[in-house]
Amino acid sequence: MSGSPARGAAVRGGPLGPRKSWTELLAGRVKKQKYNPERERKLKDSALQLLRYHQNMNDLLLEVEDPQCKKLCLSKLIDCDSASAYSDRSSSFIGSAFRDQALRLGVPVGLLSARVFACSVQQVCMEPSHPVLLSSEQRKKLSSLLEIAQHLLAHNMFSRLTFCQELWKAQNSLLLEAVWCLHMHSVVSLQELLQSHPDTQTMTMWLFRNLCILCEQIDASSPSSDTTNTMLSGMFTAGFVELLVSRGFQESWNRRPMEPEKMPQVATDVLQRMLTFALDTLDADPQVTSAYQAVRGWCSVYSGHVCCGMIAVDSLKRFFSHTLTQILIYKPVLKADAIQMQKEWSFAKTCHLLTTLYCRVFVTLGPEESVGRLQEVLEMEEVNWKHVLSCLSTLVVCFPEAQQLVKDWVASLMTRAFESCHLDSMVTAFLIVRQATLEGPFVFPSYADWFKESFGSSLGYHSCSKKALVFLFKFLSDLVPWEPPRYMQVHIFHPPLVPSKYHSLLTDYISLAKTRLVDLKVSVENMGLYEDLSSSRDIAEPQSQAIQDVEKAIVVFEQTGKIPMPVMEASIFRRPYFLSHFLPALLTPRVLPEVPDSRVAFIETLKRADKIPSSLYNAYCQACATAEEKQPKNATPGKKTKPDCAEQPLGLLSAALEELRALMTDPTQYDVISAQVAVISERLNAALGHNNDDGSLRRSKIQLSVLTPTLQRQDQTVVDLLLTAFCQNLMVASSFVSPERQSPWAVLFVRTLCGHMLIPAVLTRLCQLLYHQGPSLSTPHVLGLAALAVHLGECGSMLPEVDPGILAPAGSLCVPEFLNSLLTCRTRESLLFCMKFCTAAISYCLCKFSAQPHVALHNYLSPGLIKRFQFIVLRVFSETRAPCPPEHTASLSWRPLYLPSADWQSAALSLWAWNSFQEMLKEKEFYLTFRDWVQLELEIQPEADILSGSERYDFHQWAIYEHFFPAPSALGGCDGDLVAACTVLVSELMDFYQSSRSYNHSQDSDLVLGGRTGNEDILSRLQEMAADLELDQGSSVSYGCSASQSHILFLVFKRRLQALASGDSMATSLRRQRELLICKRLLLRLPPSVLMGSPRVGQPVSPNCEEFFNLVNSELRNFCCHGSVLTHDITMHFFRGLLNVCFRSQDPALVTNMTLTECQTKCPMILTSALLWWSRLEPVLYSRWKKCHQSTLPRELQRLQEAQEFASKFLSDSASPAPSPAWISAAALHFAIREVRKENVKAHLKKLDCERKELLISLLFFSLMSLLSSYLTQQDTAEYLKAMDICAEVLECLERRKVSWLMLFQLTETDAELGHLLHLAPGQHTRLLPFAFYSLLSYFSEHAIIKEEAFLYVAVDMYLKLMQLFVDGETGTGLPQASKSLKLQGHSLLQGSPVQLITEARIFLLQLIPQCPEKCFSNMTELLAGRRDYDPEMSNALLQRRQAVPSFDLSQEPHLF
C-alpha cells in the first residue's frame, strides 16, 4: 500500500529533506523524553482523539509500513466482486492485523476496529437504491462486514459504544435495514444504538421517518416486498415493538437503577408520533395513498401475533391503554357536534382501519378494562366524540359481553347526573345510549324503550325531586336546536311521567319540540302508534305505518282482551291520525268469518267504547256485506286480508311445543293433539305477527335465492324451533307407534305452517339445511325433514309455487319438485346424504300411506326424488343392476331407520328389494329414463365421486349399452337406436352447459366445455357413439343404402335454434349467441368428420357438407368476430375433416376440388376464413397431403395459395395479375392490406388502377365490411380511420376508372355475379350498409354522382333504410369522435352520433334533388311506397321534382360540397 518507488521518493524528498515515518517520529520522541506515566496517559488520549476525528481510516493505515498491515483495506475485504475478495480474508488474520496496528498506535483495539467498521458501514449505505432498504449488492457487502464484526466481538476486540457513536455521525446516509441487520446479527442491539445517540429529538425524527417509509412498503408490489415483510415480522417483533413498548411502558420500579431516562422518552415519543400520523391520515381522507399504506402497515403492529409472547403482558396492556387514550383525546370535538353527527359515526360507517385498530386494542385489554378506560378518559379529558362513539359502537357490536357493561355505565351516569345535576354526565349518557341504539336491537334496546324505561314511570331518575325534574326538561330543551327529529318524536309520544303540578314543564317542552319539528317539516300527527322512533330509517308513509299499527294492536288485544293503551291515547290526543289513517286501515272491507275472529272482536270493542264514528262503522258493515255477496261459492269465509305482526317472545310458543311433544307418547289421541296444535297455531300467530291469509299466498309466487338463502333473525329462530319440534315429535311418536297408526298430527302441524305466512321462511331454511348443510345433518334431522317433505307434498294444494330464479328460468316449481332440486349428487358426501334422505322419505311415505294406490303417491313425493333414488342405488350398489325377484314382505319396517345406529345401506337395499316399491316403479311417472340418467350423471364431480374412474366407466357401459340402449322407448330406453341415444346426449350436454340445475352456475361462468363438473366422462361416451354412428353411416353408403342427409348433431342444433324466441332484441341475440357458442364448441370436441355429414352415394364418394354450410350461412356468420371469416378453430376443424374424408376416397384431389368448388357458391366464408388463417393452415395441409400423396396440393387449394401469393406480391414491388376468381383474390388482398400500417395504405392502393374491375368491386365490399366491423366493435379509433381510408382509396380508384359500385348497396342473393358476397356479410353488417354508405359521403365525386343515373335512387333508398335503422335502435352506438367530417357546401360536422349522420344525409339529399336529371326520378313512386311517412318533406321534394321540368342548366356544375 506504500505506492510505487516514484511516489515514495516524492514523499520523502523535498526542500526540507527526507521526511520521517510515523514509527521513526514516535521512536525519536521516546528516546528524547524521560518516561513519565502522566505524559504517557496524555499521549494515549491525544492519539485516541486523533483517531476519533480522522476522516479516513484507510488513509491513516497507509502510513504503516508493515506489509501485512498495508493490506488491511476493508473496502477490498467487503468487495464481493473483487477477484481477491476471499483470498486472504480470514477472520483470524483481520483480528491479528487490528491487534498489531492498535499496538503500534498505542490505542485499544476495540476502539480502532469500531471506528474502521463504522466507516465501512457508512460506505455500504452510500448511494442507496431505496430510502430504507439495501440493494442486493449492499446486502452482500454488509453481510461480509457482519461476519468480521462477530469474530471481533467474540474475541473482545470491538467497542460497541464507540461504534454506535461513530455510526450516528452519518445518520442521514444510514439505512434502516442496515441497523436491523446489526441488531439481528448481535453486533449491536437496537437499544444500544438508540441509547447512544447524542440528540434525542433528531434520533426520534429519524426513526419515525424511516418507520413511515418502511410501513408504506408492506403492500408494495416491488422486488423488495418480501424483504420488507421479513423486516416487519422480524424487526418489529424482535426489535422495535419489543424495545419501544418494553422500554416506554415498563413499570418505573422495574427499570434498572443506572438506566437514564432518555430511552423511555424516545420510545414513547416514536410510538406517539406514529399513532398521531395514523390518526391524521385517517381523519383527512382515508383513501389508498402512500400515507394510507403506511398507516395500514403500522396497524399490523397492534395484531396479537406480532405483540404476544415478545412483550410482557403488563407493558403491552399499558401500551394499548395509552393508545386508546390518545385515540379518544385526538383533536377534541364538541358535544353539540356529536349530537348532530353521531348518526354518521356508526360501526358500518367508520373507517375499516380504525375499527380494526379498536378491535385489536379491545382484544388485549378486554371489554371490562376497555369500558373502564373509556370512563376514565371521558371524566378527565376533552375528547374527540367521533372517536369515542365509533369506539363504543365497535365495542358493543364486536364484543357482546360489553353490552351489559355499557348499560351499567349508562345507569351510573344517569344516577350521578340527577343526584348532583351534573350536565356532562347527562350528555354523555344520552350520547352513549343513542350510539348503542344505532347498532340495532340485538345490541341495545331501542331509544324509545330506554327513554320510557328511564323516565316513563314513578321510578324514573327524574322522580326524586323537583330539582331533578327541572334539570331533565332544561336538558331536553337545550337539546332541541341540535338533535335529529326522531329523538324529539320519542320525547313527545313517550313523554316523561310528570306530576300534575309540574305539568307545565312538560307542555312547554312539547310545544318547543313541535315548533322545531314544524321548522324541520316533520309531521307529528302522522306518526305511527308502534313506529320505531329510534330507527335511523326515513319516516314511513302514514298509510303503510297505519297497517302495521293495526296488526300490532290486534295482537296486543288478543293477549290482553283490552284496547291497547297506544290506541286509546291516539283516539284522544291524536285524533287526526286515528280517524284518517288508523281506522281506515282497521276497517278494510272483507268477507266476515262465521266465527268472529280477533279483528272482529277488536272492532266491536272499539265501537262499544265510542271510538269508531257510526257513519264509518255502517259503511264498513255495508262494504263487508257486499264483499260476501261477491264471494265465490267454494271460497272459505273468514280469511284475513292483512297479516298480523307482533313482537312476542317465543316462550309461549316453545311451551306449547313442549306440551305437544309430551302428547306424542300416545300419538293416537287425535282430539287432544288437534287441540294442542290449535294452541300452537295461535301462539305462532302471536309470535310472528302473521295471519292466515292463504289467499294472498296462492296469488303469489315465493321468490328464493338458492345460492344465498337468508332469513331474518326472528324468522329463523321461529322456524328452527318448529323444525326441531317436528323432528323430535316424529322420533318420539315413532318409538311408540308406526307412522300408519299415528294420528294425523304431522299433517295438522304442517298445515299450521302453511296457514301462516311462514312458508317462505320454512322453504328458505330447508334450502339452507338440505342444499348447504345436508351431509352434516344427523339421523333425526334427516328423518324429520324427509317426513316433513312428504307432508308438504300432501299439503301441496295450499302452497304457492316456488321461483328459484336460476333453477327454473322458464317457470316455477311446485314445492315437492323444489325440495327435490335441492338434493344434489355431485360429491361422495352429497350423494350419500341424498341416499339417506330419499330412503327415509320413500320409506315413510310408503308406510304412512300404504293403503293408497301407488299412482297416488306422486301427490306426496316428487317423481324426481324417486328417480334420484333409483339412480343412486344403481350407481352405488352393483348388485342391484342384475335383475332379482322382489321380496314379498307384508310391509316395510320404519323402526330401524330412527334408531341411532341406523344402517342406511341395508335400509336402501331393503327398500329397493321390497315388492311394493318395485310395483311402484312400474308407474310411468316413476320411470328412470335415459334422459333422466344423463341429467343426473352430468352433475357428478369425477374428482369427488364415490366411484373410482374404472368403476365409473363400468357403470357407464352398463347403464348405456346394457340397460338403456336396448330398453324400449316406452320404458325410457332408446329402442337400440344409436341416433336416439346420441340425440339425448347432445341435447342434455347443451342444456347442462347453460343450466343451473346444480346451483353452481353464475352468470359470469365460462362456457368452455369441461369447465362444468362431471361432463367429461359423458362427453367421452358421446364421442364413442359418434364414432359408432359414423361407421354405421359409412357401411350404409358402401352397400348402396341411402344414408340420412343430416347428421344428428345438426338436427339437434337446428331444433334448438328454432325453439329460441325470434326477434332482434339484445336478449334474444345473446341467448342465440350463447347457444351457437356451445354448438360450435361441441362440434370441436367431436371428430371433424362430423362436419362432412353423411357421404353421398356414388363414385367418387364425396362429403355432404350441406348441414354445416347452412349452419355457417344462417348462424355462425352472424356471430363471428372477424367480420367475413370464421374463427381459426372451426376453420381448421373443417379442413381436418375434409382431408380425413378425402384420404378415404379413391381420388383425394378430385374430392377436395369438388368440395372447395362447392364452397365458392354455397359457403364462401370457409374460403375467406382459410385465406385469413392461411399462414397457420398451409403447413398442416401441406404436411398431411405430402404424407399421404407425393403429388402437389389439389387445384383448389393451390388457388388459395396463389391468391395469398398475389396479395403478398401486390404489397411488394413485384406485382402480378390477380388469379381467378376475382373475389378470392380481393379477399386475400383485403386481409393483407389490413396488416399494412396506416400511412402506407394509400401508396399501396395506388396500384389498383391496373386491376380488374371485378376485383375492385369485391375489394370495396370487403373494405365496407371491415369499416362496419370497426364501427361495431368501437375498440380502436385508429382502426376505424384506417378502414375509412381504405374504403376511400378503393372508391376513388373505381371513380377514376368510371366503374359503378352502387350495386354493392342493392345486392340480392339472385345476383349471378356478386350475390355470393352476401354470404360473406353478417346480417347486422348487411343491415348497416346504409350507415356505411353515408359515412363515405365526403369521398363521393360530385361529377360522378350527378352523371350516375342510379345514384339518387340508391341514395334515397339508403336514407330511408338509415331512418328505419334509427327507429329500430340499431344505430345506437356512436361513431368514434375522431372520424371524418362531412363537408357539404362549407358546413363541417363530426359524425359523432347517428342523429348527426342522418341530419347530414338529409341535407345532402335535399341539395342533390334539384340538381339531378329528370330521368333519375322515374322509379321514385315505387321506392317511396309505404315509406313516405319516414320523412314527409323529403318524399314531397322527390315527388314534386319528378313532375317538374328542370329549372337549371344541366351543364352547370352543382355545388354539393
Task: Please give a structural write-up.
- It is built from 68 helices and 4 strands.
- It has 1457 residues and is mostly helical.
- The N terminus and C terminus are likely disordered.
- 39% of the residues are buried.
What is the tally of beta strands?
Answer: 4
Please tally the helical runs, counting DSSP H or I stretches of 4 or more residues.
68
Fraction of residues in helix: 55-70%
N/C terminus separation? 89 Å
Radius of gyration: 46 Å
Mean pLDDT: 77
Poorly predicted tracts of residues: 1-17, 53-58, 60-73, 80-89, 221-225, 636-649, 690-699, 998-1013, 1037-1044, 1373-1391, 1445-1457
Identify the strand order in the major beta sheet: 1-2
Q: Hey, roughly how much beta strand do the residues contain? A: under 5%
Categorize the overall geometry.
extended
Structural class: mainly alpha
| Biggest sheet statistics | 2 strands, parallel
